């Protein structure tokens, strides 16, 4: 079939073909329809990305989990003030709670300052956090380098170090609400090791 067809793109109708066979005429129209569909889909995708990015930007906010000079009062009445909290670790519990662990350092932020293993729990994806909790402390010793793990049965393990020489471990069976008394795992550390750490940096 002979004739002329004008192809209109979004930048105007400028392409014209004459003396096309019926087959070529149909193919050209099909290509034109495909182009229009692709152009519309790309436009919709661009709008979706823009709207999603704006929604994320306006809904997200920074949350400080651990603060300088945080205080913690434990059940025996003692109160501790942490100069800083370092070496953080995160783990999701079996019920999708987030547990944030850190090293609460007393008196200074140095690596040899008396250090407690502390943590907080979030039940809403990190938007808000519960009270500061003490997992373990041992006088003037450095307790830290925790490397929390979620087990297949839902229990949480928290391996940690004492003075970066001894490896200890504790377990929670209730999403971090309570923890068993830690036990030392001597078999994991060789006698000639002078520094050991689970968390960053680790050996």
Give the SSE layout.
Blueprint: E1 4-9, E2 12-18, H1 22-59, E3 70-73, E4 79-92, E5 98-106, E6 115-122, E7 133-136, E8 143-144, E9 149-150, E10 156-162, E11 166-172, E12 183-184
Q: What is the fold named in CATH at topology level of the largest domain?
A: Neuraminidase
Low-confidence stretches: 1-5, 9-16
By CATH reckoning, the class of the largest domain would read Mainly Beta
Strand order of the largest sheet: 3-4-5-6-7
Q: Termini distance?
A: 78 Å
Largest sheet, strands/sense/barrel = 5 strands, antiparallel
The backbone outline, from C-alpha atoms, is elongated
Number of domains: 2
Q: Residue-averaged pLDDT, rounded? A: 82
Query: Count the strands?
Result: 12
Number of helices: 1
CATH architecture of the largest domain: 6 Propeller
The helix-strand sequence is EEHEEEEEEEEEE
The proportion of residues in beta strands is 35-45%
Helix fraction bin: 10-25%
Helix and strand composition category: alpha+beta
Give short descriptive properties of this protein.
5-stranded antiparallel beta sheet, 203 residues, alpha+beta, 12 strands, 1 helix, disordered N terminus, Neuraminidase, elongated
Can you offer a commentary on this structure?
This protein is of the alpha+beta class and 203 residues long. It folds into two domains: 4-59, no CATH class; 70-188, 6 Propeller (Neuraminidase). Helices cover 19% and strands 35% of the residues. The protein has one helix at residues 22-59, and strands spanning 4-9, 12-18, 70-73, 79-92, 98-106, 115-122, 133-136, 143-144, 149-150, 156-162, 166-172, 183-184. Strands 3-4-5-6-7 form a five-stranded antiparallel beta sheet, with no helix packed on it. Strands 8, 9, 10, 11 and 12 form a five-stranded antiparallel beta sheet that branches. β9 (149-150) and β10 (156-162) form a beta hairpin. The longest helix is centred in the first third of the chain and has 38 residues, at 22-59. Residues 1-5 and 9-16 have low confidence and may be disordered.
């Amino acid at each position: 079939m002979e004739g002329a067809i004008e192809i209109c793109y979004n930048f105007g109708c400028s392409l014209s073909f004459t003396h096309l066979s019926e087959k070529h005429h149909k193919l050209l129209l099909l290509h034109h329809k495909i182009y229009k569909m692709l152009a519309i889909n790309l436009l919709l995708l661009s709008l979706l990305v823009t709207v999603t990015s704006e929604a994320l930007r306006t809904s997200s906010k920074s949350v400080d989990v651990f603060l300088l000079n945080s205080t913690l009062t434990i059940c025996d009445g003692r109160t501790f003030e942490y100069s800083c909290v370092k070496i953080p670790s995160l783990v999701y519990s079996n019920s999708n709670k987030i547990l944030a662990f850190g090293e609460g350092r007393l008196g200074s932020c140095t690596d040899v300052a008396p250090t407690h293993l502390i943590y907080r729990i979030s039940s809403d994806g990190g938007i808000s956090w519960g009270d500061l909790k003490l997992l373990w402390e041992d006088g003037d010793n450095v307790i830290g380098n925790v490397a929390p793990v979620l087990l297949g049965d839902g229990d949480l393990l928290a391996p940690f170090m004492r003075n970066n020489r001894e490896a200890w471990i504790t377990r929670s069976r209730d999403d971090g609400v309570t923890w068993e008394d830690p036990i030392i795992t001597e078999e994991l550390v060789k006698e000639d090791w002078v520094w050991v750490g689970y968390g960053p940096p680790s050996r």
